[in-house]
């Protein structure tokens, strides 16, 4: 996974995983039918972002990490990769916590009960069902973590944005011409030092 192949793989994996997390947290994770005696039946739908705003924010962190991997070099890529790995693991953990606790009185279940009560104004709950969108979030979190680990492991071998513009390229030559103009030289004349072309 060194070189251009690993670089492209990490970027594609990170984009796909981050988008998956953002999409998953924007979807409905639970639907609760509230039945309160004497009141109309109310249906409360909660998204993953409602139940856990941190998870939704971590998906955006993953998208920001794409720019971080493109713009940074060895040390910067290692730091960015480590941060992405931790963010991905956190998303995975949050999604799994939801799967394990949404139907209980603790964890996501406690948050669910509180939010449904706030939105419905009811004191008793009816039937709650969960959708499988948390699975997509978990997969996206794992993908983010994998992309981050790849960046930490071999990111130092990837090409960098700045190398195209280092000395010796056309851009460096153009800067040299501007610098000579600033010094009062005419770059269109023969250069006795051998730096320029002919008239």
Give the SSE layout:
Elements (H helix, E strand, L loop, with lengths): L2 H23 L2 E7 L7 E6 H4 L1 H19 L2 H28 L6 H13 L6 E4 L2 H22 L15 H13 L17
Antiparallel strand pairs: 1-2, 1-3
Parts with pLDDT < 50 across at least 5 consecutive residues: 162-170
CATH T-level topology: Butyryl-CoA Dehydrogenase, subunit A, domain 3
Q: Any idea how many domains?
A: 1
Distance between the termini: 49 Å
Count the DSSP helices: 7
Please trace the helix and strand order, writing H or E for each element. HEEHHHHEHH
Helical fraction: 55-70%
Give the neighbour order of strands across the main sheet. 2-1-3
The structural class is mainly alpha
Rg: 27 Å
Question: Can you characterise this structure?
Answer:
With 199 residues, the chain is mainly alpha-helical. It has one domain: Butyryl-CoA Dehydrogenase, subunit A, domain 3 (Up-down Bundle). The chain is built from seven helices and three strands, in the order H-E-E-H-H-H-H-E-H-H. Helix 3 (53-71) packs antiparallel against helix 4 (74-101). The longest helix has 28 residues, at 74-101. It starts with a helix and ends in a 17-residue tail after the last helix. 29% of the residues are buried.
Keywords:
7 helices; 3-stranded antiparallel beta sheet; 3 strands; single chain; 199 residues; mainly alpha; elongated; Butyryl-CoA Dehydrogenase, subunit A, domain 3; 9% strand
Provide a compact summary of the structure:
With 199 residues, this protein is mainly alpha-helical.
């Amino acid at each position: 996974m060194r070189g251009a192949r690993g670089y492209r793989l990490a970027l594609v994996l990170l984009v796909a995983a981050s988008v998956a997390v953002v999409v998953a947290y924007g979807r409905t994770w639970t639907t609760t039918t509230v039945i309160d005696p004497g009141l109309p039946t109310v249906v409360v739908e909660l998204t993953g972002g409602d139940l856990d705003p941190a998870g939704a924010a971590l998906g955006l962190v993953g998208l920001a990490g794409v720019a971080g991997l493109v713009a940074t070099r060895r040390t910067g890529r290692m730091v960015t990769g480590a941060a992405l790995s931790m963010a991905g693991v956190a998303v995975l953990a949050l999604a799994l916590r939801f799967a394990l606790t949404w139907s209980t009185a603790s964890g996501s279940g406690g948050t669910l009960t509180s939010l449904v009560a706030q939105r419905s104004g009811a004191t008793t709950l009816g039937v709650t069902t969960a959708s499988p969108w948390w699975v997509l979030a978990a997969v996206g979190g794992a993908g983010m973590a994998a992309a981050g680990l790849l960046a930490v492991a071999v990111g130092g071998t990837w090409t960098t944005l700045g190398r195209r513009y280092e000395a010796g390229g056309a851009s460096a030559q153009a800067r040299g011409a501007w610098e000579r103009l600033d010094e009062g030289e005419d770059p269109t004349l023969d250069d006795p030092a051998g730096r320029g072309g002919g008239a």
